[in-house]
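[step 3/7] fold_predict: job queued, chain A
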Amino acid sequence: MILTFPDVIDAAEHATLLEIARTAPWVDGRETAGSTLAQTKHNQQLSRDSALVGDVAKLVGAALQRHAQFGMATMPRQMHSLQLARYGAGMKYGAHVDAAMMGGLRADLSFTLFLNDPDEYDGGELALETGAGEMRFKLPARALVCYATGQLHEVREVTRGERLVGVGWVHSYVRDTEQRTTLWDLGQAIDLVHASTGKSRAFDLLVRTRTNLLRRCVET
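[step 4/7] structure written:
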């Protein structure tokens, strides 16, 4: 399941993140890459020792916690390892799979929050390998793409300008991707039925079905 969400942060939060990026102590992105990924990772990120990393995590985490659709889709138990990354001309991140564990927490879903608009840089697409072929994402500022952490993906080379993004991972209450997808579909169906018929018999049955399925799927 690959999902996109527009405007997950508001204008003020966006401005704050841009200011953090402007004043941040940037370091080589290979600081957090293993020996094999270090050969293919060519970007910059905030220094892990900077207090700004905590500011980014707090701001983005709060925005995602209040985003009902993101919450229904991902069932977050904890969001972690939030970070800013930037790619100047010539930078890229070759094909890889994100780590299954980060800081002792399972990574079920990965997300990229775009912080500048597509016309500000050339290249820099997030390319995801799927069973139906490659999907590329280069979203407007403040939009987010979320996907299963186990998917092979890469960031294509930036050839002009600068690509600025926030990245993070979700430890979900529901580990299984298919179960999360089913719960997400049911949640959307509930919203559609309620918008159409209000609190009807169909609405009540759908809520009961999703609630009972969630009870069986959730890990505490």
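[step 5/7] annotate
The radius of gyration is 18 Å.
The longest strand covers residues 76-87.
exit 0
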